[in-house]
Amino acid sequence: MAETSKVRIAYTGEALENGAMDINDLAPALLAFADLVKRANVLVGNTQPVRLMLNADSIKRGSFDVTLELIYSGLDQIKLLMGAAEDIGLKALSDALGIGATIKEGVFWLIQAIGNKKILNVSETDDNKVAINLNDNSKIIINQNTYNVFMDHEARSSITKVMEPVKKDGIEGFEIRNPYNYKDKKPSFKVVKDDLQLYETPELETNVVPENIIEQEVLLKIVSLVFDEAQKWRFTDGDTTFWAKVEDKDFWNSVNSSEQAFRNGDRLKAVCKIVQRVGANGNITAERSIIKVIEVLPKPTQIKLKLE
Fold first, then answer.
1. 170 φψ region: left (φ > 0), alpha (ψ -120 to 50), beta (else)
2. With a threshold of 0.85, does the pTM exceed it?
């Protein structure tokens, strides 16, 4: 027989006194909570996939109060609910999130405990925990799994989305409650509107990737042009269409002195500089410029003679 446990969360406020909540607020928040559980499950080292199930019968009036079940997908689809289960994976997950019996070991509590203070340094303790030293000379000792969830950008992004309904008028807080006594509305942990800024997703730390600069001789067709050195022209190389500034001063001198005239379909033989950069989200961008115009190749206008 499967060991069982539950996690109970609630959104509170005047707008929820009748037990109703806008599905457009609830659905993304619950999905984000499920994503948080799944991500934390990976971060604590569990290989068994986990799903979060909503027990609709558990909705209580006076707030939007729901009980959720964790399900490990096994061959027998055995339900394992957090807290009472002896499985080390479930306990590690419960501790890291702080949604079982160990609220003060979980990531929700840790975010609030650190608050607006700055982390000076982090070190490992002799008992394989993490010591977080803060700029007010205080120290927080936390388990490694909780710290891993705290530092994970994906998990923190899910937590931010879980808190999103609290931004709405009439919703005042997010709570974790005792799932075994539905009459007990006293929160084990609570987040109110004034705390929301603590739960915003921190910036993603990125490795500094140097710019990659390429200079190559290319043949380009002019798609559109403007006689302003500060503006970009539009080109195609036959494969890619792009905007690029023409930075060749000698070329601009010839244009401004009317030595150069252009027709639709003219081409340039030129040196194109491409600067590739890696953004904070990992995407690669490319910025192009024409640093040297070698030759202007007018669009052909004469027919080809067939010579004997």
1. left
2. no
What are the pLDDT tens digits along the chain (308 aa)? 333 457 788 888 887 766 677 778 888 988 899 899 889 988 988 777 777 776 655 555 556 777 776 655 543 333 333 333 344 456 788 888 887 666 778 999 999 999 999 999 999 888 889 999 999 999 999 999 999 999 999 999 999 999 999 999 889 999 988 777 777 788 889 999 999 999 999 887 655 566 789 999 999 999 988 888 889 999 999 989 999 999 999 999 988 887 777 877 789 999 999 998 877 666 788 899 999 999 988 876 545 555 55
**For residues 26 and 19, what is the distance between their CA atoms, to the nearest angstrom?**
12
Burial 262-272 (b: 16+ CB within 10 A, else e): eeeebbbebeb
As a whole number of Å, the end-to-end CA separation of the chain is: 96
For the sheet containing 173-177, what is the strand order? Answer: 50-60, 64-72, 7-12, 173-177, 187-192
Rounded Cα distance between 237 and 268, Å, is 10
Encoded tokens for 213: 């600069």
Of the candidates 7, 2, 282, 45, the one whose C-alpha atom is nearest the C-alpha of residue 162 is 7
Bridge partners (DSSP) listed for residue 1: none
Amino acid at 49: P
Contact 245, 267 (CB under 8 A): no
Instruction: For the beta carbon of residue 232, count every other beta carbon within 10 angstroms.
Output: 17
d(Cα 260, Cα 254) in Å, to the nearest integer?
A: 6
Beta bridge partner(s), residue 191? 174
Strand 241-246 with 284-297, pairing: parallel
**Token couple for 174:** 């997010």
Beta bridge partners of 250: none
Say whether 64 sits in a helix, a strand or coil.
strand
Q: Enter the DSSP assignment of 12.
A: E
